[in-house]
Every structure is written in structure tokens, then in C-alpha cells.
Amino acid sequence: MVTKDMIIADVIRRHPQTIEVFRKFGLSCMECQIADLEQVEHGAGVHRADLEKLLEELNRVVREE
User: Fold this and answer.
1) Across residues 13-20, what is the average pLDDT?
2) Is residue 27 a contact partner of residue 49, using CB atoms and an 8 Å limit?
3) What is the pLDDT of residue 28?
């Protein structure tokens, strides 16, 4: 399960299929060095993405693994 306090790079390493979800919400995390330090909640805030919808979609693709 992906939570708001998880580090973005950790999410991507564990679940590479989440890259497309991050991109859909305007987060180009795989290209950003800050992803190694940034929590999902902060990234969503910086990019003005709806955190709840982002988490919902991230967890949907993780469940489909």
C-alpha cells in the first residue's frame, strides 16, 4: 500500500508501474533527484495534484501487480 508519507523514489523502485500514475498527475518523479527525499504528500502539493486521487490510483496499480 502506498501512503502519503512514503518517499517517491522508494515507491517507484518497489512498484515501477506507478511511474505512469505519477506522470498522469504531473509528477515527473523518475527524472527528479528530489524524489529520493520527497514524500508523496509533498510532491502532490508542489505539483498541485489531488493527493487523495493520486493515492487511490497509485494503490490501484499496485494491487493489480
Assistant:
1) 95
2) yes
3) 85
Cβ neighbourhood burial of 33 (10 Å; 0-12, 13-18, 19+): exposed
**Under a CB-based contact definition with an 8 Å cutoff, are residues 55 and 40 in contact?**
yes
Do 21 and 56 meet the contact criterion of CB atoms below 8 Å apart?
A: no
For the entire predicted model, the pTM comes to 0.91
From CA 2, how far away is CA 15, in angstroms rounded?
10
- Matching residue, cell 508519507: 5
pLDDT, position 65: 79
All three cell numbers of 15? 512498484
Termini Cα distance of the chain: 12
